[in-house]
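Entry for the shared binder. Reason: the reviewer on the internal report wants the predicted structure included alongside the sequence.
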Amino acid sequence: MEGVAPPLSLLLCVKRGLEKGQPTKSGVLHYLKRYQGEFPEQVSRWLALLQQGKDTHGLIKEISSPHRQVVLQLLERGLRGEAIYNVIVSLEDELIEACQEEISTKLARLPFLLLIPLLLFQFPAFLLLLFGPLLQNFFHSLGGG
């Protein structure tokens, strides 16, 4: 699952664990063992706070992505013993839609970003090809010969 959005990969690990009959916590731990980065570090801090019995709302509010916040809130409910499988399935669909929307917006911006090398490198070269012979004739006529 290389290149998958971090909240989606966490959700898929937990979903796979639940389908195998394992508790929610084992899916979260499997995710933490398998992935590295900013979000897994936040998840491990969140899990440590949860295991200590402390309030996790402050840590969840620090996370900028609303999708990541919702995933952690849902998993917190699952760690408390609530049935969350159906919610995981619907949230998985929403996360996939959000990922596809983000991909389409980045693809829509791509042609404009590709114009930058065109303007910086190819346009000046075209101008040299266009005005080179004109300037050569101009300097030749000024030189008198």
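Summary line for the report: Residues 85-143 form the longest helix (59 residues).
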